[in-house]
Specification:
Blueprint lengths: L4 H8 L3 H9 L6 H14 L5 H7 L5 E6 L7 H14 L3 E6 L4 H11 L5 E5 L5 H10 L2 E4 L8 E4 L2 H13 L4 E5 L6 H13 L3 E5 L6 H11 L6 E4 L2 H14 L8 E6 L2 H5 L5 E4 L2 H21 L12 E4 L2 E3 L11
Parallel strand pairs: 1-2, 1-3, 3-4, 4-5, 5-11, 6-7, 6-8, 8-9, 9-10
Antiparallel strand pairs: 10-12
Helix pairs in contact: 1-2, 1-3, 5-13, 8-9, 10-11
Length: 334
């Protein structure tokens, strides 16, 4: 029987994730620890190629990733980074698009699930019962969706949102609008509301809408009705729609209204004006999500871990930070 990564971890007295990093990102592991892992692997006859071991065990050597909207510029860098990470670990990645519809997500899962060893679902629209049923059939990781008992990559916007609120407060803004473009990510709106209220900033909410450019175009015409001087959008696409429509309406950004996005996509830095946004690192997301899924796959194929070994983390958290650009500035004098 092939030696597993968990056996190496047990022999070296470290976690599964540390063994993974020792082979795929050795600069992230202390030299003495890495040498101990290499010695244990050599003694046990371990081969750091999970795809080969997977194929011998009837697996596919492929990871599945289902995203809400592959056309959103936020996702291509994540997909590219995840492919690179998976390649280092001996896997390939199969990507599908759910188009943010439950029926399409179910169809994508049905098409992909028999061809992969595990799945990553991004902002899934499925019910908790459906997700638990799926997790009972195959290794599963969710991103931007909390489901008790299922491994999760959590994107925390707290730091970035707090920095955005502090900047707007310093610029003299008092009345702000949040354009909500998600029914699934309720925590995002709650986090924004709490951060703004903590600084005595009034925050009205529009939506929920779909997280698309057209949503920003539509919402921009409603911002004036709230007498707001600052807008924070669900993502960069929505924020860019706001910038576009504000220009059509003759509203100056940031002269009359400041605009903030979320994601820090490539388009944010090349828009006119360049978009202030909250950055989420795509490479970190890809690395952490891929590693967590591979740990979950390893756990499901080797059974319960032995004494001293880690079980797959219930969640890992990715942080955020504000990237100030030209779309925010002092509130207009009244």
């Amino acid at each position: 029987m092939a030696v597993t990564i968990r056996e190496v971890a047990s022999a070296a007295g470290v976690s599964v994730s540390t063994v993974s990093r020792a082979f795929t990102a050795p600069d992230q592991v202390q030299p003495r620890t890495r040498q101990r892992i290499l010695d244990a692997a050599a003694e046990l006859g371990y081969s750091p190629n999970p795809a080969a071991r997977s194929l011998r065990g009837g697996g596919t050597g492929t990871l599945g990733l289902i995203v809400p909207d592959i056309a959103n510029p936020f996702f291509p860098p994540i997909i590219k980074a995840m492919q690179a990470r998976a390649r280092h670990l001996g896997y390939t990645v199969l990507v599908a698009d759910s188009d943010e519809r439950e029926a399409d997500e179910l169809a994508a899962i049905a098409a992909v699930s028999k061809r992969v060893d595990g799945l990553i679902l991004w902002a899934s629209t499925l019910t908790e019962d459906r997700l638990h049923e799926l997790a009972g059939r195959m290794p599963l990781v969710v991103v931007n969706r909390h489901v008790p008992g299922i491994p999760e990559v959590r994107i925390s916007l707290s730091a970035g949102i707090s920095q955005a609120a502090e900047q707007l407060k310093a610029y003299g803004h008092r009345r702000c609008v949040f354009i909500n473009a998600s029914r699934a990510e309720l925590s995002r709106g709650k986090s924004i509301q709490e951060s703004f209220e903590a600084l005595d900033l009034s925050l009205s909410e529009l939506g929920p809408y779909e997280p698309r450019f057209e949503t920003g175009v539509h919402a921009a015409t409603l911002v004036a009705a709230h007498d707001a001087t600052a807008v924070i959008a669900h993502n960069d696409l929505v924020a860019l729609g706001v910038l576009h429509q504000m220009a059509n309406l003759g509203v100056g950004v940031p002269r009359d209204v400041s605009v903030i996005g979320i994601d820090d996509t490539l388009l944010a830095s090349v828009s006119t004006p360049s978009l202030t946004t909250i950055r989420i690192d795509p490479e970190e997301i890809a690395t952490r999500a891929g590693d967590l899924l591979i740990e979950t796959i390893s756990s499901s194929t080797t059974g319960s871990p032995g004494r001293g070994l880690e079980v797959p983390s219930p969640f890992v958290e990715i942080g955020s930070r504000l990237i100030p650009r030209a779309s925010t500035g002092p509130a207009p004098a009244h």
